[in-house]
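This week, work through this protein record:
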Amino acid sequence: MTRFATILAGAAALASLATTPARAETIAERGEARLATMLEGRIAGEPVMCITAPRSTKLEVIERVGVVYDAGKVIYVARPTNANALGSNNALVIERLGSQLCNTDMVRTFDRYQGNITGAIFFDKFVPYTKPD
């Protein structure tokens, strides 16, 4: 009887696997989908090294993807060389070298719960996405 119950339990587990999706969406895929929604209807421009970003409250981190700055008509996207450093537990500390936000600025990540530095991020250029008139 025990052997029969084990076989039934195994069959039930296999049946539940058959009803689940073959591959769950990753964090990066969800982030890319979110970014695509933000950029819908916009046209990419030439990448730039620096942007005028006076309000850091408009800077948004998309986990495992990059950083987005909403400047109104233009949205700038900067992707890091190591996107995995943009995790849900990490916050950014940006040390600007001037009044603009540049891809050469020092960007460190720290664990928002423990407070310790977890790494550094190096951004590629900022790509502007503009809504056509």
User: Anything to note?
Assistant: Residues 36 and 42 are 10 Å apart (CA to CA). The longest helix spans residues 2-19. The two ends are 73 Å apart (CA to CA).
